[in-house]
Design goal:
The protein has 370 residues and is mainly β. It contains two helices and 28 strands. The longest helix has 12 residues.
């Protein structure tokens, strides 16, 4: 599955994220209730304007790669404006390119070490974030801060730099030294957003991430409450597929190439995860070959939004029994619904999913992209 989601069980951000770095699962867009995205009001700080970061900024270092990112995201309804792109942060080894989405309200970030692309993530709204990506020789932290007047981050309480400067638009980028990888692996703690005088505007927390050489190296997350980021540690997928339970099924009326064809029966499967948590898979059988997602607890509706995913025209998600939802539609057509899960088909582009109670009243609605 895709989309690069930072895990916390408190809030669901409005941004819809994709992660274009994950092989054939990169066409999957996931909106999970375990996601937290820290959204703050945009404005103009010392670090530069937040709503026009591409003007008079450095040229993108890999414009051709950004074109590929644009094509990948177009399939799920996220349009990139390649006329609004820039390199928004640099270190000696790495560069962070950004491209505007949603008319400039959102953006995609692509991280490069030299000419090597470490991955991309996209959002349709502006928000504050912290992430890391890694390969065998680099572990790099990056993201964006949107607090008015913010010019730097103090990450010293978790063993990272005490002064990470924010570039134009609030973007930041820094290398995590190899000699610190072991000590910082899985660490979390409080951080401070600083103004130009070094005073604290706000305290928050981060989960530093998973250090190389783990096959799950990267991750990382930003939380808005001090002391809350230990919960951002990712679930390491190790599903017990022999114990998977079929929740709901649908027979496809259309081809969804290259993976699924008309006449196939596609199901949503639930499996316990070794070491804790739950995993879900969508396909003719419970298999990681079709992609999937894992979380610490059952999916739930947050702020009237159904947790769901879209992959190659297959829409699946969750409508817990306690929500009172007895009918789910995908772009107006009924989806198969059973055991708190639903699945159905959709055409390419934006998707609207609505859940109704027994009286026909709308209980929850999710539109992708948001």
């Amino acid at each position: 599955m895709t989309i690069d989601t930072v895990e916390l069980l408190d809030q669901l951000g409005a941004a819809v994220r994709r992660d274009a770095a994950q092989r054939r699962r990169r066409n999957r867009l996931t909106l999970a209730t375990a996601a937290i995205i820290l959204g703050v009001g945009a404005g103009v700080g010392v670090a530069g304007t937040y709503d026009d970061w591409w003007t008079n900024n450095a040229s993108a270092v890999q414009p051709s790669q950004l074109g590929e990112v644009a094509q990948e995201n177009k399939s799920v309804g996220i349009d990139l404006d390649l006329s609004k792109k820039a390199t928004v942060a640099r270190t000696d080894d790495a560069a962070l390119d950004a491209v505007a989405t949603n008319g400039g309200k959102g953006y995609c970030l692509s991280l490069f070490v030299g000419t090597k692309h470490l991955g991309s993530s996209c959002t349709t709204v502006a928000d504050s974030e912290y992430r890391t990506r890694a390969d065998g020789s680099h572990w790099i932290g990056y993201g964006r801060i949107l607090d008015d007047g913010a010019t730097a981050l103090d990450l010293s309480s978790v063993g990272l730099p005490a002064h990470v400067p924010l570039q134009r638009g609030g973007f930041f980028l820094f290398d995590i030294p190899r000699q610190q990888w072991q000590a910082l692996d899985g660490r979390s703690g409080d951080v401070a957003v600083l103004d130009s005088s070094g005073k604290t505007i706000r305290t928050a927390c981060i989960y530093v991430g998973v250090a190389p050489p783990s096959p799950y190296a990267g991750a990382g997350g930003l939380g808005d409450r001090p002391g809350a980021c230990a919960a951002l540690a990712p679930i390491i997928p190790d599903p017990q597929l022999d114990d998977a339970k079929k929740l709901v099924s649908v027979t496809l009326a259309h081809d969804h190439l290259p993976t699924f064809t008309a006449g196939q029966t596609i199901s949503v499967w639930r499996a316990p995860n070794r070491g804790g948590g739950i995993c879900w898979y969508v396909g003719p059988r419970p298999s990681q070959e079709f992609g999937g997602s894992c979380a610490r607890e059952e999916q739930r509706i947050v702020r009237g939004r159904l947790p769901l995913s879209v992959s190659e025209g297959i829409v699946s998600g969750f409508a817990p029994a306690e929500s009172g939802i007895v009918r789910v539609t995908i772009d107006g057509a009924d989806a198969a619904l059973a055991n708190g899960a639903f699945v159905g088909e959709a055409a390419a582009g934006p998707v609207t999913v609505v859940g109704y109670d027994a009286a026909g009243a709308e209980i929850a609605r999710t539109k992708l992209p948001g």
